[in-house]
Design brief:
Strand content: under 5%
Radius of gyration: 21 Å
CATH topology of the largest domain: Growth Hormone, Chain: A
Order of helices and strands: EEHHHHHHHHHHHHHHHHHH
CATH architecture of the largest domain: Up-down Bundle
Shape: globular
Largest sheet: 2 strands, antiparallel
Structural class: mainly alpha
CATH superfamily of the largest domain: MFS general substrate transporter like domains
Helix content: over 70%
Distance between the termini: 25 Å
CATH class of the largest domain: Mainly Alpha
Number of helices: 18
Strand order of the largest sheet: 1-2
Length: 474
């Protein structure tokens, strides 16, 4: 049989003879010898997810301290592109080194990046640290699913996968608030110091919590050309946020679009690809699933800038602005908990409604943006951002099912669902850079720039209204 891993299907061992029939309990998963294993698996994903939004709440304080506001978007784009590259290497690292060593490398690389961030004297050094963090974090995020089948008995796979998935929600909720707390104390370097400590503790636990043997070698070619083109495209979009508005910005954006088109052409015809081959097959619904995921992820990138807007336009403290930055994630997590109970036509309808909610929430938030916002207006921001996040959470559980249902081949279906994580990372990297450009060219005041950025992201999410009609079909 096959089980889903972030880099495609993997043949699972026979179930543990002692597992018995049925599904293992939560107490079985979270106690005894399995507790340490679960802590490493869930902790790696939580560390990655939390860090993804952690820096967003810290950025206003970081810029005030070391400058470099023109590179605002690069901080997240560099992290995300490095994570995309690392995610392509998960199965190879796991096959060569085994779960224990792979996790140890992931935690240590992540910790090194956090140390660089904590000691950064300039924004350029901070971005370099974020790239290193992204390499470690992308590895951890992929390993969280890939190691479940070898580290735990079959009866616990379902609950373990659910717990690891829940860490995304945990990270996106805790990250902005915790980052805001350190910003409130004017101690942003210590925030990265905390990440170093957590990563080292989990690294120490890894050696006794996970199996050390190497798995089957992954001999599939690395899509080097696709990755290079994707990195160049994201870099072009990022450059567009730092050059003077006008011709140079248009040139950089145009270069990014051209590179994305070339990336798709190489993907469809090259010997190796980032996304499954099924994506580019005529008549396949998988392309629409991935485009819908990308549209929803465009809305998530608003979170990178919400703490900045909360402080500058709403007069919020760094901690309160960090909490506001978590509003989208609150809607996402709560809606996902409800949406997982939907099935059939109701689930397909949820996929179609999701982009409408997300786009409507962003447009409403953009319309309410104003200088010197009152407390009532700030509450309105939070409500609309929660509505936007609800749209994301409503669709995500069913997009995975739609991906797996895009083919009758179980192995191809597993690859299709696994690539959703890669699609998310690509969309995050590209739209983060685009958002930075929109903010840079937005106008003479921050409120004008904030509105342009928000409405620009809403245009991207609105594209999901069309793609979701095809992604949610039977």
């Amino acid at each position: 049989m096959t089980r889903l891993s972030p880099n495609g299907p993997a043949t699972t061992p026979d179930p543990d003879p002692s597992a018995g029939e049925g599904t293992g309990s939560w107490s079985d998963l979270l106690s005894g010898r399995h507790a340490a294993t679960v802590l490493v698996l869930a902790g790696g994903v939580a560390l990655y997810a939390m860090n993804l939004y952690f820096t967003a709440a810290l950025m206003p304080s970081i810029v005030a301290d070391i400058g470099g506001e023109q590179y605002y978007a690069w901080v997240s784009t560099g992290f995300l592109m490095a994570a995309v590259i690392a995610s392509m290497l998960v199965s190879r690292v796991l096959g060569s080194w085994g779960g224990s060593a792979a996790y140890l490398v992931g935690f240590l690389v992540f910790a090194v990046g956090a140390v660089v961030n904590a000691l950064s004297p300039t924004m350029e050094v901070l971005i370099a640290g974020r790239v290193v963090q992204g390499l470690g974090g992308g590895l951890l995020a992929g390993l969280g699913y890939a190691v479940i089948r070898t580290a735990l008995p079959a009866r616990l796979w379902g609950r373990a996968a659910g717990l690891v998935s829940a860490m995304w929600g945990f990270g996106t909720l805790v990250g902005p608030a915790l980052g805001g707390l350190f910003a409130e104390w004017d101690a942003w370097p210590w925030a990265y110091g905390l990440l170093v400590v957590v990563a080292l503790v989990l690294a120490a636990l890894t050696r006794r919590a996970l199996p050390r043997g190497a798995g089957p070698a992954d001999r599939t070619p690395v899509p080097v050309r696709s990755l290079v083109l994707l990195t160049l495209a994201a870099s072009a979009f990022s450059v567009s946020s730092t050059v003077p508005p006008g011709g140079p910005t248009a040139l950089a954006l145009g270069a990014g679009v051209v590179l994305l088109v070339v990336f798709l052409l190489v993907e469809a015809k090259g010997p190796a690809s980032v996304l499954p081959r099924l994506t580019y097959r005529r008549g396949s619904s998988l392309k629409w699933v991935y485009l819908t995921v990308a549209a929803l992820c465009a809305g998530v990138m608003a979170e990178n800038f919400i703490p900045l807007f909360g402080q500058e336009l709403g007069g919020l403290s760094p901690f309160a602005a960090g909490l506001l930055g978590a509003a989208v994630s609150v809607g996402w997590v709560v809606a996902q908990l409800v949406s997982v109970n939907l099935a059939g036509r109701t689930a397909r309808r949820a996929i179609r409604v999701a982009p409408l909610l997300l786009t409507g929430g962003l447009v409403g938030y953009g319309l309410l943006l104003t200088d010197h916002a009152s407390g009532l207006v700030v509450v309105g921001w939070a409500v609309l951002l929660v509505i936007a996040g609800t749209g994301i959470g409503l669709a995500f559980p069913h997009l995975s099912v739609a991906a797996m249902s895009s083919t009758d081949d179980p192995a191809e279906g597993a690859k299709a669902a696994a690539a959703l994580n890669t699609t998310q990372l690509i969309a995050f990297a590209v739209t983060s850079a685009i958002a930075g450009t929109l903010l840079n060219v937005g106008g003479s005041t921050l409120v004008e720039a904030a509105r342009l950025m928000t409405f620009g992201l809403a245009v991207l999410t609105a594209l999901g209204v069309a793609t979701s009609a095809f992604a949610g079909r039977e």
